[in-house]
Amino acid sequence: MNLHQPLARLHHWRASRPKTFYALATVLGLATVGFVAVVGLLLAVSYSGFGHMPSRQELLDYRNDIGSEAYDVNGQSLGRFFKQDREETTYEELPEHLVQALVATEDSRFYTHGGVDWEAYGRVFYKTILQGNDDQGGGSTLSQQLIKNAYGRPALGYGYRFDMLLHKLREAILARRLEDVMPKEEVMERYLNTVSFPGNTFGITAASRRYFQVEPADLTVRQAASLVASLKGTSSYDPRRAPERNAKRTDLVLTLMGRAGYLSAEQVAAAQAAPLCMVYYREPPRAVEAPYFTQKVRQQTAELLAELTHPNGRPYNLYTDNLRIYTTLDLRYQAHAERAVTRQMKILQRDFERHLGRRDPWETQASLAGAIRSSDRWRQGRQAGIDSLALVDSFNVKRAMQLPVPHGEPLVGQYSALDSVAHSLRYLRAGFLVLDHTDGSVRAWVGGSDFGFSRYDHVTSRRQTGSTFKAFVYAAALAQGYDPCYRISNSLQTYADEDGPWTPHNSDWVHGGTYSMHGALTHSSNVAAVKMIMEETPEPVVALSRELGITGEIRPIPSIALGTVESTLFEMVGAYATFPSGGTYTEPYFISRIENADGEVIYTHQSEAERVLSEAQAATMVTMLRRVVERGTASRLRWEYGVLSPTIGKTGTTQNMADGWYVGSTPGLTGGAWVGGENTGVRYRSGQMGNGARSALPIWAYFLQNVEADTALVLGPQEDFPEPPEEVQQSLRCADFIPPVQQVELLEEPEEREVRVVPVLSTEL
């Protein structure tokens, strides 16, 4: 036997033993370090070493970002305010085939794993990575995807690969933590309410409504499979934008449902052959009601929420906190108001275009220049630092454009920005507001005739008030002790003003004689109104106007008697509501309360009524304003429009008929309408259609006609205004107007109280 070979091997083993030992030690050492590193990394991630890790309670308390919803006084939805188009659905409202499609496609062992599916990771490694089959889905479970959707994957700053590793670990840990405290049904419910679908929708409810106009419970098997198929890529598999790719993926989802035993072979074949029946709406299916009003609700709610916080100190968010905003609007009155505005503006616009003929709608180039400077294009250009001359040049560049038309099809063609501004100026504008004057709550709010044409709200825009302001002049006189039969000269008089001598005239140029104070209001005499304010001095009128809620600039000068004061419909209607409410002013409001997602009331409106006039003074004003309707400037309510309801009111027209106003009341409602151009340079040049009686009053008339015909509505809590006290009735028993000749007769026979009333035409046609 040759001993050299065994000895050589032994010698070789002895020589190599240290190297093998050290190699094994190195491998074991590296494995230990790696294990410690992995455990350390897991512990670091788990204990918020790489960003906050929500606790089990925080996971339970998590809420999706859900927009807030506004409601009218009867609980009807007005619209939602959201950043993500999402509404939540309970698990019981989910169809079984939708849940099955999701499980079969995204997480086949959903009901057996504890949040992390290790077998799925193996499948992804073998079939997706090694074989390149991308139809096998990802390795993340629905629980992990829910964590990703809810908390996102913010950049951590360690580089893409390490950041992704940390995110995967984080999601796995949180998925296990989530399933420790939450049943599978709730995980499924939260997932389908959180995940994003095509069309910029979030949650299954929004997607079902956007693509099929049905609730989730009414989805067909194919429709449910189509939405699940789109989760692979909301753009690439959008059933509207990529129908073929979505259809192919949908067939795969149905096949997977068959393999999982959820559908029989016959059911799979039937679903694959069934039509999708997609009914897509570009905008959210539930359109916003009363858009001008809802826009104002959004603004004021945001202001109110700035002072409200969650119990943990976090401020409320209108767009994410699922608030319920209860308003005072009544959609029944709103519908009648919108129809009234639309009807009158169509009539008025046709007349205005006939009146203009081939003339431009603006009287001077200054009006056009002002409209250009007020346009969004001009403002944005100036903010961007573009020179004015360059901006002017840009306004003349033509391009393909649509010019909107109120209640009509847009004009399509090659237009410039200047064409767009000029086109907009051709259309008259309107605003209309209705309050319940018993408490100041808004019942109808129409900021314009067509929200799609112009979103500028004329309920809150400031314009000169015209003769509607005269009511405050005479109310202030009553408060100072003047009698309604106090006689005021109707003769011309010149006054010293800041701008020089000023001689007010009546609109019909009839002067002389005397008016009683109530007669001057009935027939809207300009001369008498100025003399009245000069006699009582402007300061009490200014003070009363402030008490009535008029907040703009009011200079104590004689011309305010003719309505040179600028105000809004919101303020003017609120001020006039003081008269039928017995002399108490209540600031108009439209948000009654706000509830959080748990139904807890976090805001309640508290109305504060302030005594401004005595009950007798208010009753006198109601009677005087009733005479305006019965025989004065608003009498066409009766003889032309056939309004039968007890009503009071006052017309108003500003200089050159730039603004037409009407403010009136029934026993329960106070409303006001304004009509005019985009700016004061756009107006009627002659004729009578531009005055308040012809332009604004018909809106109130049509509204009352609509409400009178609606048997489900009443105009107020009582059939008529309260009977004024006997002393008020006595104080009004005198002639509206006495011509100069009759005035001489009265001087000769002062004991005669009764005089012949000479019919006169209204001074405000």
UniProtKB/TrEMBL annotation:
Pfam families: Transgly (PF00912), Transpeptidase (PF00905). Residues 431-532, 560-667 form the Penicillin-binding protein transpeptidase domain. It is found in: Cell membrane. Pathway: Cell wall biogenesis; peptidoglycan biosynthesis. It catalyses: Preferential cleavage: (Ac)2-L-Lys-D-Ala-|-D-Ala. Also transpeptidation of peptidyl-alanyl moieties that are N-acyl substituents of D-alanine; [GlcNAc-(1->4)-Mur2Ac(oyl-L-Ala-gamma-D-Glu-L-Lys-D-Ala-D-Ala)](n)-di-trans,octa-cis-undecaprenyl diphosphate + beta-D-GlcNAc-(1->4)-Mur2Ac(oyl-L-Ala-gamma-D-Glu-L-Lys-D-Ala-D-Ala)-di-trans,octa-cis-undecaprenyl diphosphate = [GlcNAc-(1->4)-Mur2Ac(oyl-L-Ala-gamma-D-Glu-L-Lys-D-Ala-D-Ala)](n+1)-di-trans,octa-cis-undecaprenyl diphosphate + di-trans,octa-cis-undecaprenyl diphosphate + H(+). SUPFAM superfamilies: beta-lactamase/transpeptidase-like (SSF56601), Lysozyme-like (SSF53955). The chain crosses the membrane at residues 21-47. Keywords: Carboxypeptidase, Cell membrane, Cell shape, Cell wall biogenesis/degradation, Glycosyltransferase, Hydrolase, Membrane, Multifunctional enzyme, Peptidoglycan synthesis, Protease, Transferase, Transmembrane, Transmembrane helix. Residues 75-257 form the Glycosyl transferase family domain. Gene3D superfamilies: Biosynthetic peptidoglycan transglycosylase-like, DD-peptidase/beta-lactamase superfamily. It comes from the Bacteria. In the N-terminal section; belongs to the glycosyltransferase 51 family. In the C-terminal section; belongs to the transpeptidase family. This is Penicillin-binding protein 1A. The lineage of its organism: Bacteria, Pseudomonadati, Bacteroidota, Saprospiria, Saprospirales.
